[in-house]
Amino acid sequence: MVLELLSNKQLFRSDFLQSTRRLLRIGQLFGTVPWAVTLFEGDERPVASSWQVRLLCASNVLYSLALMVAVVVATVLQHVEYDWQMPFMTRMLYISEYITANGVVMLVLAGCHYQRRCYGRFSEQLLAIANDVATCGGAVDFRRVESMLNRVLASAILFFASVLMVDFLYNDRMFWSFVRSSAIYTLSNVINVLGLVQYAYVLYFAFLFYHNTNQLLMSYTRHSRDARDDKRRYCPAEIVLPINGALYDYAQLIDVLRRTHLQLSKLTEQVNGCFGILIVSTTTASFIVLSLQFFAIYQATTVRRWTLNETYLLVYTVLWIVLHAAKVLMILYPCHLTQQERDRTGPILYHFDTTARDVALNNALTKFSSQLLHQQGSQTACGVINLEMTLISTMVGALTTYLVILIQFDTAVTQGQANGNGSSFAGNGRNNGST
């Protein structure tokens, strides 16, 4: 039995490393994952090569600083050269966007080094939970997680490739303008998205483990019910008692699942605590960008002479709306799935027959039910944002209000200018150097 558990643990460890390899490599390329990160204790480098590890860490820090400087310098050049011609209200929103975007970049690049031990801690917890679920008879499908991750990464690569192509065409194929624009918008958002993918990846594992736990509980209820039906069929006048200790085995398995459920609850709290500041910053930045981009869509309807440049800018605007809406969904949807599966566990326990005279089983069910009473409520980010899908409706309402305010400001500016030029779509959209 011990050898079987060790074999399962080694197999799960290998499958987990396989499923995370591509995410780690891409994250290390863009500075969102430390180069010297280790997911498990056995992966630690020998002491003899400690100077190589220090050199690698120093190079990683310099590389992260170079990415930060590139984004900040490009942002300053963009603001100094082009944003001065915007109306006050729009210029303030763009400044807010620059501040939040640069803050998110610094947060991700510095946070991955500051919290580098979280990679190993979360990996060990996921491996332990996977081993417990397998002990209870569950199937841990690492290939499903890897397949999902590959689809997400492939979609992100295709999306940002489309963004770069449209950005290059919008900048009239001017190389340095394209580089500056890409550093401000594309590079910063790639870093942000890769940070959020790591968050969604861990929560998706938690969702699958919650789902496996519920599936196991459902199967236990069916098996125990079938066992009692067989007993009643042969001895209808007798009280239903444990059959060959089977129900006592169920009690032990349910207790293991209860501990697993508790570990998953603690894991999700730790993950939200680790990524809380990033979630709040990303949500704030996305709200600002969506306000600007919907306002740019409105201004596109006021352009009198439509040119090819306005077409590129309109496509560019739509792409950024899709991106920032997807970032909000990348935060909320994994939390929604995890919380939904967590809340399904309680009703499943009601399917067990507590009238049977099995003290161990009833005690295990009572303890499990009492534990679930203390795990209700939505997940939060820094205690500021409730990570529920209802946040989307709240953001839609706030965006509508801000869009009306921006339209009123734009109308007032347009009417107040004697020459009638006002704030045009090309002047208030993504000014990347081709005004």
TrEMBL record:
<dbReference type="InterPro" id="IPR013604">
    <property type="entry name" value="7TM_chemorcpt"/>
</dbReference>
<keyword id="KW-0812">Transmembrane</keyword>
<keyword id="KW-0675">Receptor</keyword>
<comment type="similarity">
    <text>Belongs to the insect chemoreceptor superfamily. Gustatory receptor (GR) family.</text>
</comment>
<keyword id="KW-0472">Membrane</keyword>
<dbReference type="GO" id="GO:0030424">
    <property type="term" value="C:axon"/>
</dbReference>
<feature type="transmembrane region" description="Helical">
    <location>
        <begin position="152"/>
        <end position="170"/>
    </location>
</feature>
<feature type="transmembrane region" description="Helical">
    <location>
        <begin position="312"/>
        <end position="333"/>
    </location>
</feature>
<dbReference type="GO" id="GO:0050909">
    <property type="term" value="P:sensory perception of taste"/>
</dbReference>
<dbReference type="GO" id="GO:0007635">
    <property type="term" value="P:chemosensory behavior"/>
</dbReference>
<feature type="transmembrane region" description="Helical">
    <location>
        <begin position="61"/>
        <end position="80"/>
    </location>
</feature>
<feature type="transmembrane region" description="Helical">
    <location>
        <begin position="92"/>
        <end position="112"/>
    </location>
</feature>
<keyword id="KW-1133">Transmembrane helix</keyword>
<dbReference type="Pfam" id="PF08395">
    <property type="entry name" value="7tm_7"/>
</dbReference>
<protein>
    <recommendedName>
        <fullName>Gustatory receptor</fullName>
    </recommendedName>
</protein>
<dbReference type="GO" id="GO:0030425">
    <property type="term" value="C:dendrite"/>
</dbReference>
<keyword id="KW-0807">Transducer</keyword>
<dbReference type="GO" id="GO:0007165">
    <property type="term" value="P:signal transduction"/>
</dbReference>
<keyword id="KW-1003">Cell membrane</keyword>
<dbReference type="GO" id="GO:0008049">
    <property type="term" value="P:male courtship behavior"/>
</dbReference>
<feature type="transmembrane region" description="Helical">
    <location>
        <begin position="190"/>
        <end position="210"/>
    </location>
</feature>
<dbReference type="GO" id="GO:0005886">
    <property type="term" value="C:plasma membrane"/>
</dbReference>
<feature type="transmembrane region" description="Helical">
    <location>
        <begin position="275"/>
        <end position="300"/>
    </location>
</feature>
<dbReference type="GO" id="GO:0043025">
    <property type="term" value="C:neuronal cell body"/>
</dbReference>
<comment type="function">
    <text>Gustatory receptor which mediates acceptance or avoidance behavior, depending on its substrates.</text>
</comment>
